[in-house]
Specification:
By secondary structure, the chain is α+β, with helices and mostly antiparallel strands. It has one domain. The chain has a two-stranded antiparallel sheet. It starts with a helix and ends with a helix.
Length: 96
């Protein structure tokens, strides 16, 4: 846990240094839109847009795998109940 906190602090410090060193104002033009801001902010927004796009495109796979996991868990529970019932019946048969 301490390792991850230390790693987060180091990454945060690197990001602060990056933002300070890249405070140059730039203008981004895309189709009819124009956005002015510091280079660091524009890069951060671009990165965030990429992360959100990745999450959005990965969501169907995550949901499908989650559903498959629930189905498999239910099937395992059914099989365990059947095994338990079968073992009990076999024990009763051997006693008789």
């Amino acid at each position: 846990m301490q390792f991850f906190i230390l790693l987060a602090i180091i990454i945060a410090m690197a990001l602060v240094v990056f933002a300070v060193q890249n405070a140059t104002a730039v203008t981004l033009t895309f189709l009819a839109w124009e956005f002015s801001g510091s280079l660091a902010v524009i890069l951060a927004l671009t990165f965030a847009a990429g992360v959100l796009t990745g999450i959005f495109l990965s969501a169907p796979t995550w949901l499908r795998k989650s559903k498959e996991g629930r189905v498999q868990k239910r099937r395992i529970q059914e099989l365990e109940r059947e095994l338990s019932k079968s073992t009990e019946e076999q024990g009763k048969t051997e006693v008789d």
